[in-house]
Every structure is written in C-alpha cells, then in structure tokens.
C-alpha cells in the first residue's frame, strides 16, 4: 500500500520514534491536532506499513549481555540451498540482533550480542557446525558510541 505522508504525519512519526509509549493526547498536543485525527493517521500508517512492530528497548549491559561482536562472514557458496540454510541458522539464534548481506569482499555482517567471549565462542561453534563458511572474523565492540533506531525524518 502506498501511503503519502504530509508534515503532520512526519511530526507524529517523530514523536512516536522519541517515545512510542506516550498517549494519543500527548502526541496530538505536540503536533497541534486532536486525538481522533491523530489516531486515524497512525492507523493509516500502520496499515500502509510505515509503522511496524512496536517494542521496548532494553539495556543489554544491565541484563548481562556485555559483549557486542560484529561478525564478518565470507563464503564460497552462493547457492539458494546454502542461503536458505544460513538464513534459518541466523533466524534460530536470538544472539543475532542484525544480519546484512553486503556488496564487496565481505558477504555478510552480523551484530551478535552475548554475555561474554565464551558465550560468543558457543555461538560461533554452533553456527559453523550448521553452515559451511569460508572465513569468519569477529570484531569486539569496545564502546558503543551511538546507537539509534530513529530515522532522520
């Protein structure tokens, strides 16, 4: 579905990106509208696929997930069967927060969040036991400088 956005829609999206738990009244007040039109716009954007799943952001370190690894994967196999098996292996692992197929020398990059290096090794051993890869390089993030899911509207 093709949804055309105007300035009010964008203001609503900015408000929701900042805090999706705020009330419709608060959003309406912020964008200079009333509750019912704001609700109708949000509903239209949900139905149009502009607004997806709503969730909460958890503090990984506070929950004991202190290690974030960026995993660079090169493979010599690019057949559909291998890709399906690789995708299934990634989908089955909650440690994988993000996975991207890349252009260039590296085929895939994963963002993997685990408790520590030992937990990463368990993840790594399980992955390579299921899917054949040519080369894996793991980079440990020493410090998260910026992280956001907000789009620059």
UniProtKB/TrEMBL annotation:
Residues 5-66 form the HTH asnC-type domain. It comes from the Bacteria. GO terms for cellular component: cytosol. SUPFAM superfamilies: Dimeric alpha+beta barrel, Winged helix' DNA-binding domain. One of its GO terms (biological process) is regulation of DNA-templated transcription. InterPro entries: ArsR-like_HTH, AsnC-type_HTH_dom, Dimeric_a/b-barrel, Tscrpt_reg_AsnC-like, Tscrpt_reg_AsnC/Lrp_C, Tscrpt_reg_HTH_AsnC-type_CS, WH-like_DNA-bd_sf, WH_DNA-bd_sf. GO terms for molecular function: sequence-specific DNA binding. Keywords: DNA-binding, Transcription, Transcription regulation. This is Lrp/AsnC family transcriptional regulator. It comes from Yoonia ponticola. The lineage of its organism: Bacteria, Pseudomonadati, Pseudomonadota, Alphaproteobacteria, Rhodobacterales.
